[in-house]
Amino acid sequence: xxxxxxxxxxxxxxxxxxxxxxxxxxxxxxxxxxxxxxxxxxxxxxxxxxxxxxxxxxxxxxxxxxxxxxxxxxxxxxxxxxxxxxxxxxxxxxxxxxxxxxxxxxxxxxxxxxxxxxxxxxxxxxxxxxxxxxxxxxxxxxxxxxxxxxxxxxxxxxxxxxxxxxxxxxxxxxxxxx
Length: 178
Prior knowledge:
The chain has helices spanning 26-37, 56-63, 76-89, 100-106, 124-136; strands spanning 46-50, 68-73, 93-97, 111-116, 140-151, 162-168, 171-177. It is an alpha/beta fold. The protein has a single domain (26-177), classed as Rossmann fold (3-Layer(aba) Sandwich), CATH 3.40.50. The protein has a seven-stranded mixed sheet, sandwiched between helices. The longest helix is centred in the middle third of the chain and has 14 residues, at 76-89. Keywords: Methyltransferase, Transferase.
């Protein structure tokens, strides 16, 4: 995996092979950040990265100037890797080791962008809990965006607050808005 743009543009990051992750592809990530760059000033937003895995998405935000980023993952190895990488690259990432659903139930953190990259084998019910909890607990700031990454075989268009989806190869991003 590599950082596409910003101060660490082109930097390759090698995650340990034993992490239970499926990092967002560079092509999908680049397309997503092109979309976000048209709507947000990266140096003026706050980001919550759920199911953060290797931290791939968070590194991209940080490299582009975002200084308020929180990464949540339940895997100790993932959190450890994100902390090590953030320290080595001097990136402003906060990490929280927690089950994402428990975190969403309890947090009062509000952000401009919430990115969720849950396991692709989640059930429709599991996927639906993400926007449900985000909007029930008012975790998005005004004009904020929830982005859920999933397989092209999963359809989230029937969920409340759904706006639209973009497909990149086997990856799909569904966007939710207030």
